[in-house]
Fold this protein.
Amino acid sequence: MIATRAARPTDAAYIAATALHQVHRFVRHVTREELELVVRAMLNESAIVVACSETDDDTLFGWCAAVGGVPWFCFVARELRGHGIGARLRLEVTRGRGIDPASERPAHRQPDAGDDSLAVVAARLGFVRGVHS
């Protein structure tokens, strides 16, 4: 059986690797390094829920990320697709079950005025001027 839970910092490598593997196939005219910065920044700003084994919550089957309760990316292992896992993950993250791992705050939060990690990355890529890390 499959359970869901909020992502933990120990899940970050799996989440980033699967996101980069999937997103890289759809994005053109962006270097892998730029894409990695953007994906990591988006993940840092997201509440993430993972699907895992009921008996071993370190065995991950997929995950879903949302910003402000709006899912923007969902991944399910190929061999488990078509069984409703993605729909369940989207529902859980939309309900606000995910916890922002960086701050341990609920998923539905208002960004703090000083919360500028995404802005810093955007500035480094040249999308925003005048923001410094």
